[in-house]
Amino acid sequence: MVEKNLDEIFDPVAISSELTYGTWRRQNGWKPLLFTKAYGPYFEDNNGHRYLDFSSQLMCSNLGHGNQRIKESIMEQLNKFEYAQPGYATEIRAKVAVELKSVLPENLVKYFFGSSGTEANEAAIKTVRMFFSSDKKTKIISNYNSYHGSTMGSVSLTGDFRRIAVDTFYSSQGVLHAPPPYCYRCPLGQHYPECNLACANYLDYMIKNEGNVGGVVVEPVTGTNGVIVPPEGYLQRIREITRENDVLLVTDEVMSGWGRTGEWFAVDNWSVKPDILTTAKGITGAYLPLSLMATSRRIADFFENNYFAHGHTYEAHPVPLAAAYAAIREYKDKDLIKHSKNLGKVLKKRLEEIKERHRSVGDVRSIGLFGAVELVKNREIKTPFNNYLDKLKGNPLMTDRVAKYAMEKGVYISTWINHFIIAPPLIITEEELEKGLDVVDESLSVSDKEVL
Ligand SMILES: Cc1ncc(COP(=O)(O)O)c(C=O)c1O
């Protein structure tokens, strides 16, 4: 047991796995990498091995590692004061609000800060329900195959197996799930464009038949569950349906925001204006925890004379706000949104080539510097290698075998059940991107050997 050795040798890996929980996994067998150093798009382990961070850790280190300007901004704030209770104004709060106004869809005019994407979505759920409390429009619809957070409210929105893992009557109460725009495996057995956006139209049917729906929450580009870029017209149709039915549209941009898709926010790709937008991760480039719920004028006006029954001790904490301020300035000054769009073309082209070359690749999807490779055992009938029960039980996944090979070659990719995600820091150069993709290409020989 580790405990006996604690005083003798300091073993951070053994201590971390013995005394702290590994998230989203069985604890048994957790042998984490010891992360010791990070700079630019790279990080290192304790053996001095260097890895290209091809998934920006958890799709959050959008500005790469060791950014001097963000570190200085954090220190500058700390040198002034570390904390002020959220009932006070601070200069940094105002500076970040002004920056946000300049980059968010222009209809989003009032902001609430949290510490995680989960918290931002909790705020959104409550905001929808407070907004429609007198009409009793308390139900919320989100999509299957989505992730919106880990606490009871946000996990009830979640459409993937992480909800099933904790599901009880209580965790799902008031939330219904709709078919996602997952064209490669259309849940309605349709084909775009002949489907005429059947999945979006079904939402209209659900809203009308439920009768008391107050909000629809969608990831404009589904993240963890496969970088699912919706077909043209989907988000616009969802916007129309929610408007016609007087339902609030909440877009969860925790992962898809901050240049990831080649625009400031994924909704900008389709010029859709949500009533509420939630985001986190890239807002500080992951230098400190911070999240945001941005709301429209209509919602802001509602709370002028209605009690905003929400808050946290660390709402608008000045230190993460200082990180956000510098991060937004970095996105702007380094023109990283355009860079993401430009390199996105390279990523798309290479992913298509990868699909051509590898029999185990069923589908590739990407937008900006946000891509996924979905593996299959059999291309014709799209047989997946694994299912969510394998993940729950801790069975070996094909994606993990591919990622292990890539890691040995110095490239880190984040995996899910049947796909892995390519989402490097937006500061990556074209040469680094190409090198990382060479390794991904080579790593797929592992899954190719197992096709039927
Ligand atoms: C789309 C989306 N929403 C919400 C969350 C939850 O964010 P957090 O892990 O910061 O609580 C995530 C996390 O990956 C996410 O991708």
Summed up:
This protein is of the alpha/beta class.
Question: What does this protein look like?
Answer:
With 452 residues, the chain is of the alpha/beta class. It folds into 2 domains: 33-66 and 335-448, Aspartate Aminotransferase, domain 1 (Alpha-Beta Complex); 68-333, Aspartate Aminotransferase, domain 2 (3-Layer(aba) Sandwich), CATH 3.40.640.10. The chain has 18 helices and 15 strands. The protein has helices at residues 2-5, 12-19, 56-59, 68-80, 91-103, 117-131, 152-157, 161-164, 169-172, 198-210, 234-244, 297-302, 318-333, 336-357, 388-393, 398-408, 430-443, 445-448; strands at 35-39, 42-45, 50-53, 108-114, 139-143, 175-178, 213-218, 248-252, 276-279, 291-296, 361-367, 370-375, 411-412, 414-415, 419-422. The protein has a 7-stranded mixed beta sheet with strand order 4-10-9-8-7-5-6, sandwiched between helices. Strands 1-2-3-13 form a 4-stranded mixed beta sheet. A hairpin with a 2-residue loop joins strand 1 and strand 2. Helix 4 runs antiparallel to helix 13 (318-333), helix 10 runs parallel beside helix 11 and helix 14 packs parallel to helix 17 (430-443). The longest helix is centred in the C-terminal third of the chain and has 22 residues, at 336-357. The chain is globular. The two termini are 43 Å apart. Pyridoxal-5'-phosphate binds at residues 116-118, 121, 147-149, 219, 223-224, 252, 254-255, 280.
